[in-house]
Amino acid sequence: MSARAIFTRPARLAAIVPYLWMVLFFLVPFGFVMKISLSQTAIAQPPYTPAFDLTAGLAAIGDALAALSLDNFRLLISDDLYLLSYLRSLFVAVVSTGILLLIGYPIAYGMARLPRRWQGIAMMLVIVPFWTSFLIRIYAWINILQHDGLLNRVLLALHLVSQPVVWLSTESAMYLGIIYSYLPFMILPLYATLAKMDRALEEAAADLGASPFKVFWLVTFPLSLPGVAAGVLLCFIPIVGEFVIPDLLAGSNALMIGQTLWLEFFTNKDWPVASAAAVFLLVLLLIPLLVYDRLQRRQFEEVK
Amino acid sequence: MMAEELARTHDETEPGAPAAELGKPESSLPDAVGMPLLRIEGVVKAFGGVRAVDGVSLDIRAGEFLALLGPSGCGKTTLLRMLAGFETPDEGRMLLNGRDIAQVLPHERPVNMMFQNYALFPHLSVRDNIAFGLKRAGLSRAEIKDRVAEMVALVKLKGLEKRRPDQLSGGQRQRVALARSLARCPQLLLLDEPLAALDKKLRESTQAELMEVQRRLGMTFIIVTHDQDEAMTVADRIGVMNAGRLAQLATPRQLYEAPRSRWIAEFVGDINVFEGKIEARETSRLTVATRDAGTLAVVEPRDAIGKANVAVAIRPEKLKLSRQGPAVDVASAHAVNRLEGVISDVSYLGGTTSYKVKLDSGAVVRASMSNTTRLDVDAYGLGQRVVVWFTPDDCVMLDQ
């Protein structure tokens, strides 16, 4: 065995681990979901048919495979309940991510400009909400926003309103909850990009006659785009599939796809349709990832 | 060609006989008339109570190539950054063509800087990097195109205009940085250790190119460097900084041959120092009794030394070695200082050989000799007894 082989073997093993992880905990479960999405609903345990019985022999498995159909996907397209849910999810995700970027960028920029010893503290402050469970934080918002909640009491005490305002179960409450919850995910990648940026580049731009705004627009911002892309993806994708926040804070008149999914799965016990909706959602969310990947690859090729 | 250029520049900047130059008052230039291009007056900058720049004053005339030399942390970079506008002086004025620019924002100064690691915009092509400052100046598209082409030709980057900085070699990046900082025709170009990232050979050829560009464009350059060979090669005058202060501002020759203090003498080049006491003063000649080298005859310095305790300093290449001492002409006024000792170390360095000689007093002196012949059968070996001698003119008298 050559020395090279000895040295590369552990490295190769290490490279296999993430693939193994993906296969075991993503690809295999996804296979189950995919299979259920092609089945029919049934009053049974599990609540769909056909169910594979590996002990029943090859012929039975063949029959089961033949019984699979795309009916559930046809339903997704034909019933505008699903389409509207998808559209609403995308809309909410786009608006929230936009607001997150507008709020998160200045915060990340400010953090990156702090003296070194303050940056660690600022970073802690961004992360500290994670010490408390996500659900508890959302319930805390319910407390703050409800009829006799903190917000209304403060507004009344300051005589800014004459009677309690309805905050809870509104669109605003949902956006507030989403932005509050996802802000760290926007700030952290932006901060990482901005903090490692060479300040001499900004000095060079100023030296060459660029006003502070031009320095930002022509140098700082373009160079922070990888951080912007990371932050946007990190927020956009989970917001599209968000269930808890709209369920607890938003009104019930329009559903996001996560809520529709939950409804189909738990209330209607229609696992196949829920699975089909989940598969379609996954495909939908692959699009921004592929675009990001393509952009990165192009950048890499330009460098080469 | 490079060597010729080097020789010529030094001829131009050091007119007259060396002795005449050394006799001149420092920091007045041959043709300094009227207002200097830049006048720095009593500039102070402190960071957290530490004075990084502590009362520096100096004048630079248009067309001059000035080097700021000093150990790291001496304040040279802070001074440069104040000239660029990245730091604001706490005290003092910086007059550029008579206008105080101390409080002017960086983007409003007619000054450009070439950064230590070039600070090229990684997302822009070579062309757009060079055009960046021109666009901010509001030039027309055609003017920008012409000017960029001119700069690309000047720094010999034709054909690379569309490349990104990370597709260039270190030397090419350095040229883009130079072109970008020159494009706006600044009244003053600041260079912050511009060659530190290049290897030795490339650094030497780039030094020559910098000098050529500076001379051709007639621009005023201030370069910050910690490399004294570089400072001596490129600069007309060198300002040596130490602990925030300007220790001496002089031509390379003045700095080397007539250092103002012991610190400068020891910082610039190698030097042997003998501490002693003045014993007698004759006309233009002092006799100094030293601890390690007996009694030495030294030429009287131009600036009278008040104290009796002095240091006699002499550069290694001015020490002559021989097997026997030179024939001393007692009648001649040119008495010679003679020391005796044993060769304790020999380092062959190519162009020169460096010797350490352990004197009979126990002190070690360094002497260097040019290897003027290829086959030197007479070279000194370890343990050999030699006479070290030098003339009073070759000594520099300094405060202890």
Fold blueprint:
The complex is a heterodimer of chains A (304) and B (400).
Chain A: H1 3-37, E1 40-41, E2 48-49, H2 58-67, H3 71-78, H4 80-113, H5 116-127, H6 134-145, H7 150-157, H8 171-195, H9 199-207, H10 212-240, H11 244-249, H12 257-267, H13 271-303
Chain B: H1 2-13, H2 18-23, E1 38-47, E2 50-60, E3 65-69, H3 76-84, E4 91-96, E5 99-100, E6 111-114, H4 126-136, H5 141-154, H6 170-182, E7 188-192, H7 200-217, E8 220-225, H8 228-234, E9 237-242, E10 245-250, H9 252-257, H10 262-267, E11 272-282, E12 285-290, E13 295-299, E14 309-314, E15 320-322, E16 337-348, E17 352-359, E18 364-370, E19 385-390, E20 396-399
Helix pairs in contact in B: 4-5, 4-6, 5-6
Would you kindly provide a written description of the structure presented here, covering whatever features stand out?
The complex is a heterodimer of chains A (304) and B (400). In chain A, strands 1-2 form a two-stranded antiparallel sheet. Chain A is globular and about 75 Å long. In chain A, helix 4 packs antiparallel against helix 10 and helix 4 packs across helix 12 (257-267). Chain A has helices spanning 3-37, 58-67, 71-78, 80-113, 116-127, 134-145, 150-157, 171-195, 199-207, 212-240, 244-249, 257-267, 271-303, and strands at residues 40-41, 48-49. Helix content of chain A is 76%, strand content 1%. Chain A starts with a helix and ends with a helix. Chain A has 304 residues and is mostly helical. Chain B is of the alpha+beta class. In chain B, the strands form four sheets. In chain B, strands 6-7-8-3-9-10 form a six-stranded mixed sheet, sandwiched between helices. Chain B has a five-stranded antiparallel sheet with strand order 13-12-11-14-20. In chain B, helix 5 (141-154) crosses helix 6. The two termini of chain B are 43 Å apart. The A-B interface holds A 198, 200-201, 203-212, 214-215, 218-219, 222-223, 302-303 and B 84-86, 105-108, 111-113, 115-117, 119-123, 132-133, 136-137, 164, 166-167, 180-181, 184.
